[in-house]
Every structure is written in C-alpha cells, then in structure tokens.
C-alpha cells in the first residue's frame, strides 16, 4: 500500500535509532540513553516497527482529537456565550470573566484559537511600531506617571467624562478617579487623595497640558508640586508616557466592561466602584515588583490643605482693601498685624471654596464687601456772615476798590 507518512523530527530521530538497533549497531540500553526513553518503551517501539513498519513509530493520536480536549458541545457553549454577552472582549479578559461569573475555566490560548477559528478578530493584536524599552524605576514612589483619559466610559448611558490615572512606574500600581474633565481642581483633588493613601511621590511625569505647564509662570498644580518638593517632568510626546498610555488602553477595555456589568452610568457611582472593587482587583492582576522599597516622602509637616488649593497674591490698597475676581475684600484688625498699604498678601481658595488670607504666614481676618468701597470726602464748613474773617475780607475788597478809583481820578 502506497501513501505519504507525516513524521516529526523527533519521530524521525527515533526511527533512525530503532533501525540501528535492528541492524545490531546499537544496544537497547545505549539507545534509551540517547532518546531519553525507558528500555520498556524502546521494546514497544521495536515491536510496533516490526508489526506495522515505519508508521509504527508515529504517535497514535496524530490527526485525532486529544483525549484531554474539550467536547464540541462545550466549545459551542463557550462561543455562544461570547457572541451573546462578551462580543467585544479580548481572549484574556474573556477567560477571566468566564471563571468569575460562569465557573468555566479555559486557557487564554484556547479561547484565542477558538475565536480565530470562528473568524472573530477582536483577539488580533494591532501591530505597533517598535520602540526602545525604558527600564522601570527601582523604588515605589520614585516616579508617578499621571494622565487624563477622555472616553465614553458609560457607553452612552451617561455623559462623557475623564478618568484621572496615577500609575507608579516601578510597580504598575494605579490610583484612579473619575472627573468631569481634566481640570485643575479635580487634578489637585486626585493627587491629594493619592498622597493621603501612599505618601508624596518624588517626581511626577505628565504631558504639557495647560493644567500642568504654564506659559512663563507656574500653574497651581506646578506650584503645589514645588511646595511638596516633587519634581515635575514633562513628556514631549504621548509615546514618552508609554506605561500610563498603555494602562489607559487597558482600562478603556476592562473598566468599561466592568461599569457595564454593574449598570453604572454616573461619576459618583463609578468612583465608589473604583474605590471598593476595581482598583484593588486591577492592582492584584497587573502590579509587579511589590517587594521594592517605598520611596514616598511622609506627609508630616506639610499643610496639605494650603498646598492643594488655588493661590494668588494681591496688593493692599490705602483703605486696607484688596481686589479679587472683580470684587473687594476688606481686611480687618485682629490677632495678626495688618500689612501696610502697597504690601502684598496671599489669598488661598481651598478646594471646598473657602477663602483664607495670609500675611507673613499668619492668617488675617477679612470681610467680603458687596459694593465697591467709596472715596472718603471732606465735609464742607460754611463760615457765618458775621465771622471776623468775612468782615476783614469785605474791608480788604473796599480798600482795593477805593485805591483803584483814586488812580483813575
């Protein structure tokens, strides 16, 4: 019977060794050491070779389904579940939710193979240009990458918003917070919460958005980082912030689906979900190098409420008022001495909208004026008609008139 045999290199090597045993060129013991097989297995191969010929060397499961493989019914059940509920999931995330919500365990590669066989292309990774990898920092808190990700996080169930993302460079730990936009107040609030949780990072890596980098002067964010002693590093391209950008892409996949499963459609509920569930599970899944040293600085000695705020300076006017945002504030005498006019005071507006005014690091009392302060005028004093000054003035006028008439005549 003629035909074609398909044989692996490993099987071909075994065939050559078995042929040498049959030709009395090798002993069974020597051949077992060469092939890393037991002598009993070699005797089985010799017997099969004698009975079936060359094809006796080929594995009996070649071209057949694995004995440990999944049934077709099970495969169909998994694929139907994917098409019905998880049609936009990647294979890795799909296998995780199968274990968590359906008590079904398959490997990532099995899921990927099944999806490709069904011509489902969500599992195909897009080709990206090669870039040189930058080594991670050596300590937790040495470098914090920060970015805002604008996305339709609620998939039309609610308004679009921004996810503020803090990623530690050394460990990949994240701290997340939803906000309406990437504005100064929410950015300061997010960093403040991070500092309260982990400590003050040594440096922060951001893009050149106007919240972080001003034109010729420090923004409130830059001023706050300077007061904390945190170095600001500005990226020149999105690719430079590779770690946080990749995490944004991962979050736009996993977090969106998590919010969908929970039926969340507003920022308040989304932030509760982040704090109670998602951040912890995400860090358990993706954080690395958890045994590295912690380089965060302690918050002791820092007045965080007066650091994470809006600050500006104003000159004191002659009437001890200052102008702020088109309105006027009257400085009041109290325990702290008032500055003299033309000196400057520092106005702090906390994130809860409370105002505080400081001079020489001491807080001043003040009152917000409803109207513009008026100029202090002088009260006119009317001189009586019989006042001696008036009589003297009248006599002087009469003398001048008489002298004038004498010169004429």
Description of the structure:
It is a single chain. This protein has 409 residues and is an alpha+beta fold. It has four domains: 9-57; 72-123; 144-286, 2-Layer Sandwich (Nucleotidyltransferase, domain 5), CATH 3.30.420; 308-369, no CATH class. It is built from twelve helices and eleven strands. It has helices at residues 9-22, 28-35, 39-52, 72-85, 91-102, 108-117, 184-198, 220-228, 242-262, 267-286, 304-307, 388-408, and strands at 144-151, 161-168, 174-179, 203-206, 231-234, 309-315, 321-324, 327-332, 344-350, 355-359, 362-369. The strands form two sheets. Strands 6-9-10-11-8-7 form a six-stranded antiparallel sheet. It has a five-stranded mixed sheet with strand order 3-2-1-4-5, with helices on both faces. Strand 4, helix 8 (220-228) and strand 5 form a beta-alpha-beta unit. Helix 5 crosses helix 6. It is rod-shaped and about 165 Å long. 21% of the residues are buried. The mean pLDDT is 87.
Number of strands: 11
User: In the residues, how many domains can be counted?
Assistant: 4
Question: What percentage of amino acids are in beta strands?
Answer: 15-25%
Helix/sheet category: alpha+beta
With strands numbered from the N-terminus, the spatial order across the biggest sheet is 6-9-10-11-8-7
**CATH class wording of the largest domain:** Alpha Beta
Total number of helices: 12
CATH third-level topology of the largest domain = Nucleotidyltransferase, domain 5
Taking the sheet with the most strands, its summary is: 6 strands, antiparallel
Mean pLDDT score, rounded? Answer: 87
CATH architecture of the largest domain: 2-Layer Sandwich
State the end-to-end distance: 165 Å
Cα shape: rod-shaped
DSSP helix fraction: 25-40%
For CATH, the homologous superfamily of the largest domain is named as: Ribonuclease H-like superfamily/Ribonuclease H
Radius of gyration from the alpha-carbon trace, in angstroms: 41 Å
